[in-house]
Design goal:
The protein is mostly helical and about 60 residues long. The protein contains two helices and no strands. The longest helix is centred in the first third of the chain and has 22 residues, at about 10-30. It is elongated, with a radius of gyration of 24 Å. About 0% of the residues are buried.
């Protein structure tokens, strides 16, 4: 029936659908979570400044 003679094909189909559903749930739960904090932004600016100094020396 529907070319699902073996056990692996239906299992793969079910696992594919379940993984897609899990991805949707994960995305919905983490939709607006996180982002760049002020501390991370400050660290990035320091890092960029140090990198520029090193490049100028080269």
């Amino acid at each position: 029936m529907f070319g699902l003679e073996g056990g692996a094909v239906p299992a793969a189909f079910v696992l594919t659908v379940l993984s897609a559903a899990l991805c949707v749930v994960y995305g919905a739960v983490n939709w607006n979570r996180g982002g760049v904090t002020e501390e991370e932004l400050a660290r990035q600016e320091i890092w960029d400044g140090e990198e520029k100094q090193i490049e100028d020396k080269l």
